[in-house]
Amino acid sequence: MDFTSLPHGAFTLANVTVPACLVGQEGDLVRIDMGIEAGHIAPPGGVAVDMRGAMVLPCFTDMHTHLDKGHIWPRASNPDGTFMGALTTVRADHVNWSEDDLKARMGFSLQCAWAHGTKQIRTHLDSADGQYLRSWPVFSDLRETWTGRIELQAASLVSCEAYGTEEYPEIARTVAEHGGVLGMVTYPVPDIKERLLGHFATADAHGLDVDFHTDETMDASSETLRMIAETVLETGYQGRVVVGHCCSLSTQDEARALDTLDLCARAGLHVVSLPMCNLYLQDRGTGTPRRRGVTLVHEMRARGIPVSFASDNTRDPFYAYGDMDMVEVLREATRIAHLDHCETDWIKSFTLAPEAACGFGVSSLETGAPADLVIFRARDWTEFFARPQSDRIVLRGGEAIDRKLPDYSDLDNLWKTS
């Protein structure tokens, strides 16, 4: 099969491999014939192309990213690979985040995501210390520029200690004006419950969903996830609640951790795991790391808690690598969190689950869905995970896109610091 010469117009991808859960069938992978017509999946018809078992997936949703931090590594590398090293380095680099700098780096990441087959992205935007005045207008401009290619959402990123400051109400107002999500980083502080109550009340007043960076630490005493679930149950908050990272669960007493998950299930929380970044930062010291930093995704699934996976950071002090490629996330999450040898529908955690968590449009491989597809030579999961699938085809509206990645040299003019 020549992957470079798919027909135009109405045609059929004959003999393709797809996840059964995405076509309403039982089991793992199944073979079907998939018609493409007028930019949508259709009954088989037109020119038939024998795909010889090639795997087809819907385009991906990357629901937890940091486009504003992306690609600052050349001028702002992490000095020791730790979380605090990342935090202090990024804060020091904020002085360089001009409109032109943000547009160049964020646009570069979006080009990568487009080429790899992602169609929907939520990004967190550093918003404290006046940064909201710069980053949110740039985000809105990019969202308009990328309309029809990648649908974009943004969530504010402030620490829980930002609640009660003079600028917090202005940040919330800015988020609402730009149609965003009210985000917060939570960690143990003496009055964390009061700050959570205030944050949820602010979100409710503005009609906003919330998105938390939660317990991104190996410290078992960090239990803000539990407090978030309790606060949702106490207040009856009705918006979407996303909690990311949740690393400390993996170090807590099992009975306590599972009790917290029962609360999360009752509260209707949606968890997003960021295994590549957590593996990079957590349990880093002078010797060999003992712990992965990944949260309890299997135990969450067993309780009906929706679980997603996402890219997180890209070539910045929080994660030195990455390319906005959800295939890499899928491959690494499967290895790190042992998503194999268990349920057969984990692919939903990279497509349907993040779409629901963010309120994006729903992807599908069923008749009538947009033909926004990624096609791989791999015919089963072992072939899929064995290689990076760099020769994939991305279809948008049934037409193959130009998958050329931007060159890193395109950003060379940004590395002269202020």
TrEMBL record:
Keywords assigned: Hydrolase, Metal-binding
Name of the protein in its database record: Amidohydrolase 3
Listed GO MF terms: cytosine deaminase activity; isoguanine deaminase activity; metal ion binding
Domain Amidohydrolase: 196-391
Record Pfam families: Amidohydro_3 (PF07969)
Keyword Metal-binding: yes
Biological process according to GO: cytosine catabolic process
Claim: Hydrolase is one of the keywords in the record: yes
